[in-house]
Amino acid sequence: MKLEAIDIIIIVGYLVLTIALGFYFSKKASKDLQAYFLGGKTIPWWILGISNASGMFDITGTMWLVSMCFVYGLKSAWLPWIWPTFNQVFLMVYLSVWLRRSNVMTGAEWLEKRFGNGRGAELSQLVVVVFALVSVVGFIAYTFKGIGKFAHTFLPWDFASDTYALILISITSLYVIKGGMYSVVITELIQFIIMTIASIAVGIIAMNLVSPEMLSEHIPEGWKELFFGWHLDLDWSGVIASVNQKISEDGFTWFSFFVMMMLFKGVLVSMAGPVPNYDMQRILATKTPKDAAKMSGLVSLVMYFPRYMLVTGLTILALVFLGPKISQEGGFDFEMILPYSINNFIPAGFTGLLLAGLIAAFMSTYAATVNAAPVYFVNDIYKKYIKPDGSRKLYVRMSYLASFVIIVLGIAFGFVIDSINSITQWIFGALFGGYTAANLLKWYWWRFNGYGYFWGMMAGLGASLVLPFLFPEVQPLYAFPFILLISLFGSIGGSLLTKPDNEDVLIDFYKSVRPWGWWGPVKRAVMERYPEFTPNKNADRDAFNIIVGIIWQLTLVVMPIYLVIRELWPMLIAFGVFAITSIILKKNWLDKLEND
């Protein structure tokens, strides 16, 4: 791709700015571990929310969303439930509050508060530290492969993909390691502004180039419909016949069953709480539990509208101008829709801004991931077992070293793997598939202990790693119920075959976090010891707010799609639903958040 001078100036200027900010904030970040990893819990919740949204606005995910929107149209709005995206609604409604009330620094430290200091608690902390470090190395390899292929496609210099990846990761690592969370959050704020401007610009360009009549000529019947029956009923014959083959390969023909499975898995995964990554770190970095809830709510509010203007804009440009070419040539890599659209339809200046925004998307995701990882080694291993009496400066220096080692391991892994898809399947299929059961029970069942957590995690992760080899043709989503049952067996068996946790530990946890669920014996003990204590009776209200919140979040996805394809009445209906659900959430969630 040939870039104009103005495009190159914008990209280089952005990279220089991010490095400068990292070094500027290094003094603030080097005070102690809490300053380095959590920004001293002084960063405003709205900045953390925008930072978190920026960290989720990644290149690879955007390319996938564009390809899904091209093939499935409005129905692609449901497909991100596979991650699931509505986990942010669960965090917003109650889980961020519970997590922040624990007042810890890492997921492993949280387990100490939940399970105490016995042998079972140590095993539970060990397995979550290993999970966190391995998953971060995997994510670095994932971003390494993705940014390399992206940069090789767009940037004008004749470097190999892995060389581009190495250069960009090295630049990003400079400000992440040196500046800690302060630099990560501030640079992500700038990155989000760049991405938002670029995304809205692409949407407007597409609206000017593609009329509704032009779009209708290049899509099948049903492409503009959000809802569906048992079957997908989207036939591309006579338009782009090869798309039918992709739908068959994706396994989405029985669309209702697929969505129900996504919902089943998504609810359980969301109730388990965040995995030990940047999402958890942002929650723990807020000033209060109320701020943590508002921060999680802001993520959905600010992220989806600009992102789906970008996704839809690139999609309709490709449908109208690339579609006939695909129809004539047959086979096509649908992930190349994004580079094709940028290369052919975005003017000079905006191209540089958009590329800077997409590089920013990579940098924000990568930076947030790397910043969340070393704390597990330094705080939960080095400080606890190796050097408990070390100075604050020593711990910060060890954080630098841990970040560097983790980055090197991730890059090395990135050189070895063959494709983005292989590492994606490993992370979301193998690692996260076995995470759910143990982390679900830790919030809601008093009898669940450290041994149950350890054996549940081990059983779940083991099943997640073995099942893909035994049944390679099975879609990972359809294997989830079997992995869940195996992990539940390990979790419940490990708990019931060992003694309950110390009563004082359970009382302290229940009193400070105040969860709802099966906590009967512990609740009675707390009420006897602290008669003024008020238990959490909000389970029904939280469940109602989650249903409303999922609908609210879905409107934030479909409104920008309808706007860009210029479907006025559906957009107004979606806006009406958004307004009604916003009012309900304001009165039944936001106004009732407690000031701890």
Automatic annotation (TrEMBL):
Per the UniProt record, which residue ranges are transmembrane? 6-25, 45-66, 78-99, 120-142, 154-177, 189-210, 252-275, 296-324, 344-377, 398-417, 423-441, 453-471, 477-497, 543-562, 568-585
Entry keyword annotation includes Mitochondrion: no
- Judging by the UniProt lineage, the source's domain of life is Bacteria
Q: Where in the cell is it found?
A: Cell membrane
Assigned keywords, A-Z: Cell membrane, Ion transport, Membrane, Sodium, Sodium transport, Symport, Transmembrane, Transmembrane helix, Transport
- The answer to keyword RNA-binding applying to this record is no
Q: Which InterPro entries match?
A: Na/Glc_symporter_sf, Na/solute_symporter, Sodium:Solute_Symporter
Give a GO biological-process term.
proline transport
Principal place of residence: membrane
GO molecular function annotation: L-proline transmembrane transporter activity; proline:sodium symporter activity
What is the reaction catalyzed? Answer: L-proline(in) + Na(+)(in) = L-proline(out) + Na(+)(out)
Family assignment from sequence similarity: Belongs to the sodium:solute symporter (SSF) (TC 2.A.21) family.
Instruction: Name the chain's protein.
Output: Putative sodium-dependent mannose transporter
Q: What is the lineage of its organism?
A: Bacteria, Pseudomonadati, Bacteroidota, Cytophagia, Cytophagales
